[in-house]
Amino acid sequence: MLSQFLQKLLFVDQFGIADGKITLLGHRQIMLHASALLELQEIDESMIYNIVKKSSFNNINGAVEHAKVYKRIKNVIVNELAQIGQKIGRNDEGAIKTLESFFDIYGLGMMKIVNLDNQKNEASVEIKDSTIAGEWIEKNHKKSRSSVCTLTAGVLAGMFSYIFGKDVDCVEEKCRAKGNDYCLFEIA
User: Fold this and answer.
1) How big is the CA angle at 149 (ends 145 and 153), to the nearest 5 degrees?
2) CA distance readout (Å), 76 to 35, 124, 145
3) 133, 20 in Cβ contact below 8 A?
4) Distance (Å, whole) CA 79 – CA 74
5) Of 126, 110, 101, 140, which Cα lies nearest the Cα of 187?
6) Considering the domain boundaries, does residue 3 fall inside one?
């Protein structure tokens, strides 16, 4: 049952979940599992910032592979999806639709799988209206020199590790914070 406060917010159109967006009182939100937040609070943010800052666009894969945020979020998502898969089943088509809905509920943006190759364990995913990239732009009032959606990359790596039944990684090749129209992630 929804809290009375949330019911009031829904009634006056101040809370909503749709199209990859969670809004509360006019501001975008991201919903994460409590275990993901627990992992995030244990991370030294300055280390992650410096890794990403020092990496060039061509070397972002190396930076992402070593970022604690990425690895921890990826592991949390794999475990969470394994639990969900036990409850709702795990055929490929059903899993993909469920994951798209699951991603939508997180509020990270609107996910679109543009390429999926189960044989090669590869995928390409576009995220329209990324919450993280949007917040970066709003906070900094300029374009970023590098991709900023490490958390989203970790979530996608976990989702596709689950889909493929194999450990895969995710690299953000385009980012809205860099001036692209959408964020593009390559998973392999």
Assistant:
1) 130
2) 7, 21, 29
3) no
4) 9
5) 126
6) no
DSSP 28-94: EE----HHHHHHHHTS-HHHHHHHHHH--GGGHHHHHHH-HHHHHHHHHHHHHHHHHHHHH---HHH
Rounded to 5, what percent of the chain is helix, strand, coil? 55, 20, 30
Domain range enclosing 106: 32-187
Token duo for residue 4: 């009375």
Tokens 């990425």 correspond to 70
pLDDT tens for each residue of 13-28: 888 888 888 887 788 8
Per-residue pLDDT reduced to its tens digit, 98-124 = 677 777 778 888 899 999 999 999 999
Domains of the chain: total: 1
In-domain check, residue 116: yes
- Provide the CA 40 distance to its chain's centre, in angstroms: 14
Please count the CA atoms within 13 angstroms of the CA of 95 that sit on its side-chain side: 20
- Do residues 179 and 143 lie in contact, with contact meaning Cβ atoms separated by under 8 Å? yes
23 within a domain of the structure (yes/no): no
Mean pLDDT of all residues belonging to the chain? 78
Q: pTM of the prediction? A: 0.72
DSSP state of 112: E
